[in-house]
TrEMBL record:
PROSITE patterns assigned: ASD
Binding, substrate: Q155, R233
EC number, as in UniProt: 1.2.1.11
The protein, known as: Aspartate-semialdehyde dehydrogenase
Reactions this protein catalyses: L-aspartate 4-semialdehyde + phosphate + NADP(+) = 4-phospho-L-aspartate + NADPH + H(+)
Any GO BP annotation: diaminopimelate biosynthetic process
Length: 336
């Protein structure tokens, strides 16, 4: 396989290097791309130094089988033609194409086969909060249809990129040193704070991030489910957490839900209140699965169930999900 990573220097790009290595992804040649900021920089992959090339409109993608793109929506839109011109499958982490009809939006545990129908040779990786939520929802949807979802998210700083993670570290240092706090990546100081806004506001008062959870969940699950989300940035470094309430067509008992989560693909049940065992972002960064805990009947709705999930949004929410899509294509001999 000839593989390319577009946006190699970023938080997701760096995770691609780790995940591809960790999973022994079959690679004969790896190409790295970036803007003029990182072009020329070298990264080591499987003991070999690879120099970042400047992403340009040229023939650099000739012979590439899979291109993992994580360089923002603007770059993906501008370069999709160049990347896919010679037949490379572009698996895109940005929001550029997710809701376009002729672009599949894929979470392998839920709708892997959708990746096989890609008229433009582009497959979109969903929004990170949506990915980890649908992995959990799928386990319950297998039992009975989920009609409604209410969700509050607790999203780590790194969801806004590598520089945002650095800014949070720096803000804590500045606060503790009594220095003025520098705010660049977020709307407000995040250290010692919560910010109930991720992405820009839309006309209905929800943010774009919240509307992504509504629209993308329906597309991935091929479902009429309604999702009402409140997305909050929290001063955790890595791994997003979500508090989820679902309403199902028939009531689901806690025991049944535990069983479903325990056997659900991509899930780990971590729910032992007596031992204070529940998922927490600090301890689950860098892990592959989505962890589920705090499973309870919803006291306000007899067809309701509530639970708490944590997943590493740079890993399962981005790089790992994209690599799993590629692995699926290889497995069904659809590529390579
Ligand atoms: N962070 C997450 O948790 C997460 C999760 C899911 C999806 N995503 C999505 O993944 C994408 C990247 O996110 P990130 O967090 O990795 O951001 P990041 O840390 O800020 O990295 C951005 C990357 O894009 C590259 N880039 C920017 N403009 C470019 C251009 N014109 N040409 C080539 N490369 C360019 C940068 O390269 P230079 O350094 O050379 O400029 C850098 O490698 C975004 O679309 C984001 O929404 C992120």
């Amino acid at each position: 396989m000839k593989v390319a990573i577009v946006g190699a220097s970023g938080a997701v790009g760096q995770e691609f290097l780790r995940v591809l290595d960790e999973r022994n992804f079959p690679i004969d040649e790896l190409l790295l791309f970036g803007s003029s900021r990182s072009a020329g920089r070298k990264y080591t992959f499987r003991g070999k130094e690879i120099e970042v090339k400047l992403l340009q409109h040229n023939d650099d993608f000739k012979g590439v089988d899979i291109a993992f793109a994580s360089a923002g929506a603007g770059t993906s839109k501008e370069f999709a033609g160049t990347i896919t011109k010679y037949g490379a499958v572009m698996i895109d982490n940005s929001s550029a194409f997710r809701m376009e009809e002729d672009i599949p939006l894929v979470v392998p545990e839920v709708n892997a086969e959708d990746a096989l129908n890609r008229p433009r040779n582009i497959i979109a990786n969903p929004n990170c909060t949506t990915i980890q939520m649908v992995v959990a929802l799928k386990a319950i949807e297998n039992l009975t249809h989920i009609k409604r979802v209410h969700v509050s998210t607790y999203q780590a700083a790194s969801g806004a990129g590598a520089a945002a993670m650095d800014e949070l570290y720096e803000q804590y240092r500045q606060v503790l040193a009594g220095e003025p706090v520098k705010v660049e990546k977020f709307a407000y100081q995040l250290a010692f704070n919560l910010i109930p806004q991720i992405d820009v506001f839309t006309d209905n008062g929800y943010t774009k991030e919240e509307m992504k959870m509504y629209n993308e969940t329906r597309k991935i699950m091929h479902s009429d489910v309604k999702v009402s989300a409140t997305c909050v940035r929290v001063p955790a470094l890595r791994s997003h957490s979500e508090s989820i309430w679902i309403e199902t067509e028939r009531p689901v008992s806690v025991e049944e839900a535990r069983e479903a989560f325990a056997h659900g693909e991509g899930l780990v049940l971590m729910d032992n209140p007596e031992k204070k065992e529940y998922p927490m972002p600090l301890f689950l960064a860098g892990k592959d699965p989505v962890y589920v805990g705090r499973i309870r009947k919803d006291l306000a709705d007899e067809n309701g169930l509530t639970f708490w999930i944590v997943g590493d949004q740079i890993k399962k929410g981005a790089a790992l999900n994209a690599v799993q899509i590629a692995e699926y294509l290889i497995k069904v001999k659809n590529i390579g």
